[in-house]
Design brief:
- By secondary structure, this protein is mainly α.
- The chain has five helices and no strands.
Length: 86
Amino acid sequence: MPQWMRPEVYPLMAAMTFVTSMCVFQLTRNVFMNPDVRVNKAHRTMGVLENHDEGQKYAEHGLRRFLRTRPPEVMPTVNSFFSNTK
């Protein structure tokens, strides 16, 4: 049986699959959870939505709350190794 895809293509396929899944995740999140997107007809008829609490909940998601408590360092061990002179 002939091989239909070369093995050199696997890393490219993995990267493209990852990027595509991240795009689908973000688009799905925006469609279903963003307070500015109005899918059903009842919400589309309203001119201005008074949903400040819903917008705040969308903007302050769990990842952002978690990262707010962490120091702004990518690799703290490497940073401390090179910055501490003894």
